[in-house]
Amino acid sequence: MKARVRVTLKTGVLDPQGKAIGHALEGMGFAGLGEIRQGKLIEIDLAERDPAKARAQVEEMCRKLLANPVMERYAIDIEG
Amino acid sequence: MKARVRVTLKTGVLDPQGKAIGHALEGMGFAGLGEIRQGKLIEIDLAERDPAKARAQVEEMCRKLLANPVMERYAIDIEG
Fold first, then answer.
1. Closest Cα of chain A to B71: distance in Å?
2. How does pLDDT run across B33-75, given as a tens digit for each residue?
């Protein structure tokens, strides 16, 4: 199965990349923009066929490598 | 509303970051891993309240700034 991990900065952590994107979009004429945050997206192909086990495996990857728990949070989507 | 943009490298474009993550995970003992790709995630708060118009606006942002159409493709999720 396929897992998709979204790693984003925690609320309150300064996100200069997101701010830069916001300024660029405003400079191009886009209006009505609120906050913009940039994060990482990691797509993983897994041999595991059980969704619950796949999620547990990816959860462990996030804790051990993919996300920095001090500044980042993560969300996992598992697809068939 | 909130838009979530996933920008990923097109199939066939070399992804050294994804490869590095894969090697690191294997080195930590994770097995059964297939391809791993890293992409960007951009979350945008929009004043626009109409989902179709919000999507059209974000589509334009992707074409003009957020994605490099030569190497990357993008997917947009709109949330209420």
1. 16
2. 999 999 999 999 999 999 999 999 999 999 999 999 999 999 9
Residue in A65, A73, A64, A62 with CA at minimum distance from that of residue A3: A62
Which 3 state secondary structure label does DSSP give A80? coil
Query: Chain A: residue nearest B27 by CA?
Result: A65
Six-digit token pair at B43?
Answer: 């979350």
Domain count, chain A: 1
Amino acid, res. A49:
R
* pLDDT digit string, tens, across residues A20-56: 999 999 999 999 999 999 999 999 999 999 999 999 9
CA distance B43 to A59: 22
Cα within 13 Å of Cα(A30), Cβ side: 27
| Partner-chain contact B65 A25, CB within 8 Å | yes
Which residue range is the domain that position B17 belongs to? 2-79
Its ipTM equals 0.91
For residue B21, give the amino acid letter: I
Kind and range of the H or E element at A8? strand A2-9
The CATH number given to whatever domain includes residue A15 is: 3.30.1280.10
